Amino acid sequence: MTRKTTNLDAIAEEFVKQIIELSPDMRVSLGLRAGKQGFEDFSPAGALRYHQLIKETLEKVSACETVDSVDEVTKAAMLFDFRMAIESYENNDHLGDLNNIASPLQGIRDGFDLMPTATAADWQDIYYRMAAVPTAYAGYKESLIAGAELDLLPTRVQLRAALKDLAATANEANPFARMQEEYAAWASSETGKSAELPTDFATKFAAAVTDATQAASDFASWLEAEFTSRAKNDDRVGADRYRRASATFLGAYIDTDATYEWAKAELQRIHAEQVQIAEDLFGAGTGVFEAMRKLDDDPKYQVLGTDGLKKWMQETSDQAMEDLANVHFTVKPQMRALECMISPTGSGGIYYTGPSDDFSRPGRMWWACPPDQEIFHTWQEKTTVYHEGMPGHHMQVSLATAAKEELNSWRRNFCWYSGHGEGWALYAEDLMDKLGYMQDPADRMGMLDAQRLRAARVIIDIGCHTGKELPGWDYLASVGISQEAYEASLAKSPFADLGDTSAAENEWDRNHVWAFMNNNVAMAEGFLVFEVTRYLGWPGQASSYKVGQKQWEEIRDSFQAAHPEKSLKEFHDQALLLGGLPLEVLHTALK
To answer: Where exactly are the structural domains of the chain?
Structure first.
């Protein structure tokens, strides 16, 4: 039975409507027409419009009475979300936003990936976005200038990554030129030949591509000239900003000191399990990294090229869907489609994009493979397929998207917290292990390697950004890192050429983050450089995965203790049907 729309639902829907008007990207993600706007406004004026809308909506939500339990959860989530957004804005956290994964730089570059390309109307929308690229860079430039005036400057690490990204954008990995190639292929197809577009459309589109490429090049020149001598040498954001950032990603406040110590103990536990598997596989005395090298060399666990990777991803994903649907999770028919994709960016990222609101575009798992990587190791990546796909992000996002009869649009499509989303995806990896999908010790080594990565990230994320002391040699030895190996990694840090950091000798800095991570994960150097750069420029996000998993497991255990008559499937369904929530609210909602 369809739930009756309440006053609070109406407020939420009106908020969504206004957000959609401000954000073409959100329209595209929902499967709607992007329109003439092209991009959201990346300038300070654009941020102010969001801020004012959130303040106005917060007042309405605060004054609105709830009528049922769904309303109660919605109100709690909106109050938390809006108050966090206001606190962040008032502390100018939106200014000086430059990193290698989630700043406007990537939004401009990747803005075309999800846009449909089947009809003349689709290509008209793409043209509008292409023509808006110079304006998008100009607005972003205004925000960086405003940040610099408040001494919110880019760091040397993020500036170098941005300039490398922009160089590729204007040349070998040009996303604008790629769209022109796709347009030419479409225009020469039977569909394109019969489509109704202005006679000068191809000429105008080519000119827009040229202007977009030039805008990227000009922005790079400006960025280099403006900030090379001014970029900060300290990657740390400090305890206050870290507290806000962490809560923004988790939807909950944590004790950073206690969490730091917990993560150190968790890393020791994971390492001990890896040592046991290494010795079970290859004999007593075999080290964890030695075992991983042997697994890498085993053809049984290799797929070749991106075509091979895509095929293996899809087969693994399809099998998980077939096995889990309506056994451990409720899967509606429209949720079954999950496409595995190779991203053209080559940045090294792996991510999921949800289905459109009407499921005409399915959920997709993306792998942005570095161009020089030809061999992919299934023992290491199987757990990632479960994380991004089924039962990870795809199960979580698609079930919420399909819950139109229960939840308003804000709950289904807009309320997203990394601690909830990424914590669930890590919970899903561990669940697949418990369900027997990691019976091959090699696959389990890969799952533990991924878990080890996330535990190590909590340590370096909190440690670096809040200025904690480095762990001692005894601790490093307890997680399998020798002083010799650590110091060798430190000496070869790819960030060493950026100069001495501002950290004290016994405190975390970018070079120690590199050395620690290089001795904790089995990851190709290109991937790891990308990852470490990400951690340094996105405080609070990296730790939200493992901390989120910890909280999901606590929530599950509390639920099962309170409801011993309910199955694990009932917990999964009940929890995921709440949609994305701040973890603080999820705890309360399931009590």
So the answer is: 7-248, 250-591
